[in-house]
Amino acid sequence: MAGFQSLPGFRDFYPEDFSRRQHLFRVWRQSARAHGFEEYDAPVLEPLELYTTKSGDEIEGQLFSFQDKGGRNVSLRPEMTPTVCRMVGARAGALKRPIKWFSIAEFYRYERAQKGRLRAFNQFNADIFGEAGPEAEIELIALLIQCLCGFGLTKDDFSVRLSDRDLWFFYLEALGFNDAQARGLLSAVDRYEKMGEDAFKACAEAPGGLAPELKDKVLSFLKIRSLPELEAVLAPCASEKISARLDDWRKVLAGLAAMGLGEFVGVDLGVVRGLAYYTGFVFEAFDRKGDLRALAGGGRYNDLIRKLGYSDLPAVGFAIGDVTTGLLLEQRGLTPVYVSAPDVYAVLGGPAERAAALGDIRQLRAAGWRVDYPFKDLAFGKQFKAAAESGAKLALIYGGDELAKGVVKIRDLTDRSEREVPRHQVLASVRTALSGP
Ligand code: HAM
User: Fold this and answer.
1) Are the beta carbons of 314 and 122 closer than 8 angstroms?
2) pTM above 0.85?
3) How far is the CA of 419 from the centre of ligand 1 (A)?
4) What's the CA-to-centroid distance between 123 and ligand 1, angstroms?
5) In ligand 1, which atom is closest to the CA atom of 320?
6) What pLDDT, on a 0 to 100 scale, did the predictor assign at position 436?
7) How far is the CA of 253 from the centre of ligand 1 (A)?
8) Candidate from 316, 323, 327, 328 with most ligand 1 atoms within 8 A of CB, to mutate
9) Residue nearest to atom 15 of ligand 1 (CA)
10) What is the DSSP letter of 111?
11) How confident is the model at residue 1 (pLDDT cuts 50, 70, 90)?
């Protein structure tokens, strides 16, 4: 094998790939700012302990962890949530609430290779701290929708599926399950879409088993796809906490409908999320037509900041990944065309003309125009060919005759028209020519 290859699941970003990634980041950043979120960043390497037990078994098994030269157990970050909780927890008293933060960063998980899953990927994370009410969910789900609509995707391309771990726990408790059994069942529900009924094998084999009629109830609960269905199933086990929770559901759905986003959101009790820290509403965004894995996922995690040793602070957030989003945009033909053209290409007669041109080139560049020129002295013909191939709109021609007359020739490479301008007016003339009619 010649040379080296990147590690499995890691990507090189050649300029065209890089510009596609920048397009994603630009749309996400714009959307977050429009929703009043502030940007932060954090270390890629964290103490291993930040993830053990708090994120859940699945992520724990995928950590890129090792011992550093000082004997510390460390890990590359697999997600942002524990880190942002640490940052917010450490300054919780001083930060103005609600705290609305976002970040765009790279994460590392030792996953098995599959479509849409890599070992190094980027996420846009957005989280709200200090708001216990469903207004925070409305704000975040609206942001998530904008983060996808910003690319030109519509309600026909993706949907956000909303579910609720609280209601799951209330329901399972009403069915007589204890907390440990309920957690086992929720992780089976999480695997159900992938594995079907086999997901419940471990629960059925656990002490106490899983009676067929209870399994049927769990299965029909996970198939709930509307609020009226949810209300109907919960009616027989009505309690104060269940009716307060259903009020929150109505608020979230009404808030999103008032924003004109109702059609993007569906009820889906089959979503419970694999991460261990979620406490209430959870949601995921999916491609409506294809077989892509989740585009985004998130939910409430009101206990995590306290579990990390800080004060109690309600929190909710989500992350979108760049891999599945990129695939979806490609499938829908929404990937921007890659353009790497200068604004201006300078054609240079010889060493004296080159010397004269360099000062103008620097000035044009300082003014923000993208200017290219040949590094070596070449025949005019070759330079004009290079100018045309570069995709530049204008060629600036510095020939011996022009230099003697104190002018520069500006050629419009689209319509081939030419005119001469005095040397000292090059910057102004280029600005006029490139600013359009
Ligand atoms: P997550 O569901 O693990 O949640 O990841 C969110 C998104 O990141 C996924 O929907 C997917 O698009 C992308 N993603 C995850 N793993 C990979 C991978 N191996 N390769 C490519 N893309 C991947 C979280 O990470 C939570 N921390 C989100 C959150 C923020 N919850 C609250 N705040």
Assistant:
1) no
2) yes
3) 56
4) 7
5) 7
6) 64
7) 24
8) 323
9) 321
10) P
11) low
Q: Is the pLDDT of residue 437 over 60?
A: no
Phi, then psi, of 59 in degrees rounded to 5: -70, -35
CA of residue 297 to ligand 1 center, whole Å: 6
Q: Whose CA is nearest to atom 21 of ligand 1?
A: 117
**Ligand 1: centre distance to CA 225 (Å):** 23
Strand segments (E) across 25-157: 38-39, 45-47, 65-67, 73-76, 99-108, 120-129
What integer pLDDT is reported at residue 375 of this predicted model?
97
Q: Is the peptide bond before 336 cis (omega within 30 degrees of 0)?
A: no
pLDDT in tens, 100-159: 999 999 999 999 878 899 999 999 999 999 999 999 999 999 999 999 999 999 999 999
Indicate the average pLDDT of the chain. Answer: 95
Q: Which atom of ligand 1 is nearest to the CA of 325?
A: 12
Compute the radius of gyration of the chain from its Cα atoms.
Answer: 29
Cβ–Cβ under 8 Å, residues 319 and 310: no
Domains of the chain: 15-331 (3.30.930.10), 344-435 (3.40.50.800)
